[in-house]
Write a structure and sequence with these properties.
single chain, 334 residues, alpha+beta, 3 domains, 4-stranded mixed beta sheet, elongated
């Protein structure tokens, strides 16, 4: 039942009951009827009161009958209020968890946006410094250093100058773009002050785009030790008669240099490529032209003593393999 129909019905019902009560009170008054030993006037007043109560009761009953919300409000209001209070108590912690999750989501979205920007910049060639890239490698012998603090300060200045040239090359005025934590520098000084030869490797913390104003870095300190000795055989391969095409020879030499680089990296070297004596490959090719039916053992031999940050220069030495040794090597290779 709609609200307007309910109001009209209540008005009509109240009018009928009040008219009936008025007529009943009038007749009782004229008949001088008495209830509970009351005077006729008091009796008529009591009848009128009862009639008004009936109007209210009938109106309320009708509203309760046709209106579900009113029934719930009258008879279940206390329970609903208690449930609402309990729900609010449960909702409080959930609301806090939701806020924390929203903050985490926002943080992850920011990280994702940064990764997307870095990826786009990387694809467009704008990343000029990669995460973990060396900005400067510095050798220092504490036993021969007069003022360690001055040497380290000069090293950081040089690293800052080189970094500025990479990140903002169009700015000629010196600027402080390189940031290293003070406690990292203090730990560096404490470690190398023990004496001996050391390598200080200043490395970038994150990817850096061209034009950025700040580059965060950290110093890596490692002992400056001997990596290769002059005349040492670092690695070797076998070049068999069936592998003497230009493509196979190039592949074998590339594999030999890759193995040599992997070996010196394992020993602790910081270099990223092997320097090969310029005439080594030509001498090998000339030899193979004159000796096409031969099996060779090719060795990568160090031409100098090299320490941790020093370049490694190798020469290719090759010699024929005897039949018995060749048979064993072939069996081993299979």
């Amino acid at each position: 039942m709609s609200g307007w129909l309910l109001i009209i019905f209540l008005l009509l019902l109240g009018g009928l009951i009040s008219t009936f009560g008025d007529l009943l009170g009038t007749k009782i008054g004229k008949a001088r009827f008495s209830i509970l030993k009351l005077r006729p006037r008091r009796t008529a007043t009591l009848i009128t009161i009862i009639t008004g109560s009936l109007i209210s009761a009938s109106s309320l009953s009708l509203m309760i009958l046709v209106n579900r919300q009113l029934r719930v409000g009258l008879f279940r209001l206390g329970d609903l209020q208690k449930q609402l209070q309990d729900s609010r108590q449960v909702l409080g912690p959930l609301k806090k968890e939701r806020e924390q999750l929203e903050k985490k989501i926002q943080k992850k979205e920011l990280e994702l946006n940064k990764l997307e920007k870095d990826f786009i910049a990387l694809r467009s060639g704008q990343v000029v410094i990669s995460s973990g890239q060396s900005l400067i490698i510095y050798e220092i012998n504490v036993d021969t250093v007069a003022d360690l603090d001055v040497r380290i300060e000069n090293m950081i200045k040089n690293a800052n100058r080189l970094t500025q040239k990479i990140v903002i090359p169009n700015t000629r005025q010196p600027r402080n773009v390189l940031f290293i934590r003070r406690d990292h520098i203090e730990e560096l000084k404490k470690l190398i002050s023990q004496g001996g030869d050391w390598i200080i490797n200043i490395k970038s913390v994150t990817n850096v785009l061209r034009g950025e104003q700040y580059v965060y870095a950290f110093p890596e300190v490692i002992p400056n030790k001997l990596i290769t000795e002059k005349g040492e055989i670092i690695s070797k391969i076998f070049l068999l008669e069936k592998d003497l095409s230009n493509k196979e020879v190039n592949n074998k030499i590339s594999f030999l240099l890759a193995s040599t680089l992997a070996e010196i990296k394992r020993r602790g070297s910081l270099i990223n490529e092997i320097n090969l004596r310029s005439d080594s490959v030509n001498e090998l090719r000339d030899f193979l032209k004159k000796n096409s039916a031969i099996d060779l053992e090719i060795k990568a031999i160090s031409l100098r003593n090299s320490k941790t940050a020093q370049p490694v220069i190798v020469d290719l030495k090759f010699e024929s393999i005897k039949e018995v040794k060749l048979f064993k090597e072939r069996k081993f290779l299979k």
